[in-house]
Amino acid sequence: MADKWAKLSNVISFTAIVHEESVKSQHEHLLTEIESTNDPLGPTVRAIYDGNEHEKFLDQLDVRIRSHDKDIERMCNFHYHGFTDSIAELLKVRGECEKLK
């Protein structure tokens, strides 16, 4: 009898994992749709809330936002020195233009 309960428990755990992955996959698809569409977002938002998993979607959205924030920070750090060099060069040009007046 204990063996049957152990098997049933394993099946239930496996089913929960599959469901969780399915929901995560659906949310990933919806996030991609939100990022890439120029169409109204009403149907996408409705799909999120009709699924009764909107809290999990918001968690996944937070992860996506943090990922984009890290990408933006990396790009800013990479281009910062070039930006400051360009500003310094523009200031030099401005000073030379003032001399020409």
TrEMBL record:
It comes from the Eukaryota. Residues 60-101 form the Exocyst complex component EXOC6/Sec15 N-terminal domain. This is Exocyst complex component 6B-like. It comes from Saccoglossus kowalevskii (Acorn worm). The lineage of its organism: Eukaryota, Metazoa, Hemichordata, Enteropneusta, Harrimaniidae.
